[in-house]
Specification:
Layout: H1 14-27, H2 31-48, H3 53-74
Length: about 80
Amino acid sequence: MPEAREKFATQVESELLSGLRELARQEGRQIQALVDEALADLLEKHHSGRPRPHVMRAYQASHPRFGPLYKKLAQ
């Protein structure tokens, strides 16, 4: 059985909404699906206290090239 859904209203900057509409069109998805994904990502980020797996993969992939820079920035 699908999870219960609730309606809510909010306001966003016109530019953000325009970008969201374009992304939904490009991906062939509903705006609601993108909003659900964005809210889930935000809550996960705040609750976990750890970087998300895809962020760590990107960091690790960039480390061979930028490792020395990361060390300097950490100092």
